[in-house]
Amino acid sequence: MTALRVALIGCGAIGTSVLELLEGDTALAVAAIVVPEEGVAAAQRLVPGVPVASRVPVAGIDLVVETAGHAAIEEHVLPALARGTPCIVASVGALSAAGLAERLEAAATAGRTQVQLIAGAIGAIDALAAARIGGLGSVRYTGRKPPRAWKGTPAEQGRDLDALTQETVIFEGSAREAAQLYPKNANVAATVSLAGLGLDRTMVRLIADPAIADNVHTVEAEGAFGSFELTMRNKPLAANPKTSALTVYSAVRALRNRAAALAI
Ligand SMILES: NC(=O)c1ccc[n+]([C@@H]2O[C@H](COP(=O)([O-])OP(=O)(O)OC[C@H]3O[C@@H](n4cnc5c(N)ncnc54)[C@H](O)[C@@H]3O)[C@@H](O)[C@H]2O)c1
Q: What sign does the CA torsion over 190, 56, 71, 107 have?
């Protein structure tokens, strides 16, 4: 079997961990790592065996995986799709920006290929996306984090996060509003929205809870299929406490499924 030649965009917390997990994989070969121009030399020192570039090579790549952010989707994913290279995207929160989802779709259509959004830090995306086919009535996402995790966000306005003694709802509204006000926390809400009722009809509640240490994600959905409640208590990635380890596993699963004879 010839290995799929993968271009990995971004070599930060998620990218580095993806690389580690792909080491020795005979079905997937990382053929290029793409980082901004100024980071090429440093990334090359980090991974001496793999070519590092500031662009996705136009030849010799079967699959692109993005773990870098909104700018990288614009710079690298859109052109790769238009050239006909399938792409896997981790920065799903970026699709809350007006028009980006449509532009990804248009580029993939032009290239006769596909862009896959990973489930990342959240589960039950398969159930939600399947339930949508029968019709969804409501979908609500609740993100609960320790107060310090909300520092540097609008949650600080009018309250002292360090002084909270009980759980406090810091935001309640649509996923679209949540993405505008809390862009750094947009990945899960955007993923749930895209799989379910969309950014305007997915309700989001964000909570600062002094009684917890981990980030807790809850999704409640009901519709023609019945209903479900899902709670995730994700462990952070050692390299970046803001990123769940599950996001890395989700990206690696998506990659392995592309190469697998039996995908699940
Ligand atoms: N889907 C999910 O559930 C989920 C969960 C966590 C993080 N994410 C997203 O994954 C992405 C990566 O997260 P991380 O923790 O690894 O971040 P990070 O900051 O540790 O790493 C980002 C990497 O991308 C590179 N980069 C930035 N702009 C680039 C560009 N224009 N072209 C090429 N490379 C570029 C940086 O140099 C860096 O190597 C973020 O967008 C984050 O929001 C998604």
A: negative
Q: Domains of the chain by range and CATH?
A: 4-117 (3.40.50.720), 125-243 (3.30.360.10)
* Residue 102 burial class via C-beta count within 10 angstroms: exposed 0-12, middle 13-18, buried 19 and up: exposed
Q: How far is CA 243 from the centre of its chain?
A: 10
Q: Which residues are catalytic?
A: 217
Confirm if 14 and 248 have CB atoms less than 8 A apart: yes
Tokens representing 98 are 């007006």
- With the most atoms of ligand 1 within 8 angstroms of its CB, the residue from 40, 47, 73, 91 to mutate is 91
75-125 pLDDT per residue, tens:
999 999 999 999 999 999 999 999 999 999 999 999 999 999 999 999 999
Distance 12 CA to ligand 1 centre (A): 6
Read off the pLDDT of residues 239-253 as tens digits, 9 standing for 90 and up. Answer: 777 789 999 999 999
Cβ within 8 Å of residue 71, ≥6 positions away: none
Q: Measuring from each residue's beta carbon to the nearest atom of ligand 1, which residues come in under 6 Å?
A: 9-15, 34-36, 39, 67-69, 71-72, 75-76, 90-93, 118, 120-121, 187-188, 191, 240, 243, 247
Measure the CA–CA gap between 33 and 52, rounded to whole angstroms: 5
Q: What are the CA-CA distances from residue 33 to residues 6, 18, 46, 69, 103 (Å)?
A: 9, 12, 11, 15, 24
Question: Which tops the pLDDT comparison, 239 or 44?
Answer: 44
Q: Residues 74, 55: contact at Cβ < 8 Å? A: no
Ligand 1 nearest-atom number relative to CA 239? 20
